[in-house]
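Q: Please design a sequence for this.
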């Protein structure tokens, strides 16, 4: 997996398009697709939310990288990623055995698809825009919609998501019975904390679609407040504004994770830079946080074409009508159920 280079000319279009912005799923029970959902975490227990990076294993020997912890001593819980599948899960710390100094387990985790992808997606050269994972390494004719939910006062694009769920129901020959079970459509939602605060019903509706097995949502961190300064040039805007230091990036990122956890959402290991605009020091911080920067190679409202293997970018926050129209058209051209792939599966298979 090699991150592709962005066309720098495209950078100049970012602000105009981004005027559209106002301002992993957990492993499910065996045999069931992951939903990315879990029981809500109390805000009280998140007061000591901490960044860690530990090599651990479950009692049945499954290696994990633990990257966040919270909760009282003796009742500590963790957020971890399965480094083979990229899927995240929340579990009690006491269900794990962790190395206190790097040993064979750390070496095993370090030599995993997750660790290799994280290293490649956060390596130099540091691009001012679209740094990181920009295309799917294995596709088999499929693509992925990534839908940004930046802060917005507009109604979200429910019709698009509704249309997407229609692809979860396999074609059935006339008269065939019984009706096959839905096959959830993979989609990555890049959510901002501020959008979640102001759109609780829409968020709950999306979570319901995951529970019903219609969508398999990868919950991508898109910062909390999604900083943007209208008068700044792109290269110095969003998180690349000089005012955004490491402490601000940590607040933006970790507070979004906490906002997900309190709403019963399990954060994935993916992060999307607002405007896709990034800076070397922030990319390095993401690596420390075990977060993979997620770019795109088919930003629909910029006129980029969604070929097979594309990471398609559009906004679902009501501010990207052109992107939504093109996405709807793209849906018309896809096969019924096998046209889409999740980030986790594309990176694993
Ligand atoms: Zn955004």
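A: Design:
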């Amino acid at each position: 997996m090699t991150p592709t280079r962005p066309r720098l000319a495209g950078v100049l279009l970012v602000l105009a398009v981004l005027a559209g912005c106002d301002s992993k799923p957990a492993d499910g029970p065996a045999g069931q697709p992951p939903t990315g959902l879990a029981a809500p975490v109390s805000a009280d227990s998140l007061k000591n939310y901490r960044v860690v990076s530990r090599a651990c294993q479950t009692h049945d020997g499954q290696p994990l990288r633990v990257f966040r912890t919270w909760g009282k001593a003796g009742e500590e819980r963790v957020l971890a990623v399965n480094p083979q599948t990229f899927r995240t899960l929340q579990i009690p710390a006491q269900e794990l055995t962790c190395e206190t100094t790097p040993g064979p387990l750390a070496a095993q985790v370090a030599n995993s698809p997750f660790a290799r992808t994280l290293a490649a997606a956060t390596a130099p050269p540091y691009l001012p825009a679209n740094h990181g994972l920009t295309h799917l390494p294995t596709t088999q004719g499929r693509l992925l919609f990534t839908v940004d939910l930046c802060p917005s006062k507009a109604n979200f694009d429910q019709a698009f998501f509704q249309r997407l769920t229609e692809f979860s129901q396999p074609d059935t020959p006339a008269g065939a019975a019984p009706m096959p079970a839905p096959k959830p459509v993979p989609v990555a939602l890049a959510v901002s904390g501020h959008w979640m605060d102001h759109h609780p019903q829409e968020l709950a509706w999306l979570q319901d679609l995951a529970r019903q097995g219609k969508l398999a949502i990868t919950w991508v961190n898109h910062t909390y407040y999604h900083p943007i300064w209208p008068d700044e040039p792109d290269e110095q805007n969003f998180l690349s504004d000089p005012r955004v230091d490491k402490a601000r990036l940590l607040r933006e990122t970790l507070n979004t994770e906490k906002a997900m956890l309190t709403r019963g959402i399990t954060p994935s290991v993916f992060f999307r830079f607002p405007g896709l605009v990034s800076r070397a020091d922030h990319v390095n911080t993401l690596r420390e946080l075990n977060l993979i920067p997620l770019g795109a190679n088919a930003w629909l409202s910029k006129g980029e074409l969604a070929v097979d293997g594309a990471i398609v970018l559009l906004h679902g926050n009501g501010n990207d009508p052109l992107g939504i129209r093109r996405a709807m058209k793209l849906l018309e051209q896809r096969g019924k159920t096998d046209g889409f792939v999740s980030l986790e599966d594309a990176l694993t298979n």
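Q: Thanks. Anything notable?
A: The longest helix spans residues 246-262. Residues 8-29+123-348 form a domain with the TIM Barrel fold (CATH 3.20.20.370).
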